[in-house]
Give the backbone structure.
Amino acid sequence: MRTVTKAKILNFLGLFNIMRSIVYRRDLSDPGIVGFYKDFLKKDSLCFDVGANIGRVTDILLRCGARIIAVEPNPECVRYLRAKYRFNKRVVVVPKALDAVCGKKKLYVCEVNSLSTLSPEWIKACKKSARYEEFNWNKEVEVDVSTLDNLIKDYGRPDYIKIDVEGNESNVLKGLTSGIPMISLEICPETAASTQECMRYLSASGDVRFNLSSGETAVRFDLPECITAAAMAALLRENPRFGYVWARSGNILT
């Protein structure tokens, strides 16, 4: 049975989030994954998990002793997160999307919730590449939208921001006007142009360099040292991949 078919069946039965949560729990016993984040996070570091979904990265950050603002607009995932962290004072669930400006926007809800997005362009690109040709975005929900700047006003300046919002990363960054020590952005071949826009935007704010981690969960940086936005853009043009681009500010780049 194909993976997409299994995902559809589990989602239909209401078991999709439960099964993924069981699988993701393995991350917490992997010293490579937890150690990767501990290299740049301290106890009580403040982190924004933007596009928290069901809390996979939030759980890893908790294991590192961090405090997390988990931002998620999908009502189904918000319910899951609130139930999961209802007794954990180190996690605040924010039931909103982030974008360049505040307001309301349409969330295109996929039958598999991890692929829901604000970006119809991303859906078209994924359909065109045939990566998600079997999935349907068959529901639309109006959601509240805030910005990273407003989140910082409410909760403080974070040490790390993870942005994984299915093609809307550049719009999320446009709502940020201050430097952050570490930011990670999901990348995939379909969002190559958006990734380059993100790197140009971050570079304009000061001394920012970039690294890569391939795959769904980071365990190491792909490059021995951070490089400029232009060099990273050239690398990704030559070798498109799935994973995360990491942006570090200041002179402590490794």
User: Anything to note?
Assistant: The first strand starts at residue 46 and ends at 50. The chain has ten helices and ten strands. Residues 184 and 246 are 4 Å apart (CA to CA). The chain has a mean pLDDT of 90.
